[in-house]
Amino acid sequence: MAEWIVSLIGQLGYVGITLLMCLENLFPPIPSELIMPLAGFAVSQGKMNLGLVIFAGVAGTILGALPWYYLGYRMKADRLRRFFDRYGKWLGISGKDIVKSQQWFQRHGNKAVLWGRLIPGVRTLISLPAGIAAMNFAQFVLFSLIGIVAWVTILTYLGFSLGKEYHLVSDYMDTITTVVGIALLIGIIFFLGKRFLRRHQSHS
């Protein structure tokens, strides 16, 4: 996988980054945690421009997110779940993944699209429930872009900073993901607690 990514970026440059990040969103097993840090390493060697690398990564990611949004918009959740239970193994996606992303969206609303872009296992599929819920397309693109720019910039910067050790980025991202997940969990508990107290006060 790593050799193929290196070869494609070497041959196609920024277009290769865009293509890889687009494919990464269509086929989750292709890891952005390897693509963008590798591009960041190339920047540290003076072979690529940092701004153009980030732009290429963001462009590819948003392009890869659009087909999932459209699919969710056109199909019902139950139908999608059955489809991925049957054929999802070829894409590395299961019906449970669809349910997980839908529950995430229902819990957090439109902001789920933003935060979901920072959570592995959710960020690629968050486009599906957004489409199922017929989320306003302009808002979908805006919230997606904010999260995608953050994700791509973090990965690229880590690759730039680590240099030849760019492959260690996945370890750093595990820590960052844990921190983000805990922060979101605390936020959810706080929100639900306030809601419970309001209901309790209204009935008393």
Secondary structure elements and their pairing?
Layout (H helix, E strand, L loop, with lengths): L1 H11 L1 H13 L5 H13 L5 H25 L2 H11 L7 H14 L2 H6 L10 H6 L4 H26 L6 H35 L1
Protein model, in words:
Its main location: membrane. Keywords: Cell membrane, Membrane, Transmembrane, Transmembrane helix. It is a multi-pass membrane protein. Helix content is 78%, strand content 0%. With 204 residues, the protein is mainly alpha-helical. It has one domain (2-203). It starts with a helix and ends with a helix. The mean pLDDT is 76.
* Number of H- or I-type helical stretches: 10
Number of strands: 0
Rg (C-alpha, Å): 18 Å
For the sheet with most strands, the description reads:
none
Descriptive labels:
DedA_domain; globular; DedA family protein; VTT_dom; cell membrane; 0% strand; membrane; 204 residues; mainly alpha
Quick recap of the structure?
By secondary structure, the chain is mainly α. It has helices at 2-12, 14-26, 32-44, 50-74, 77-87, 95-108, 111-116, 127-132, 137-162, 169-203. It has one domain.
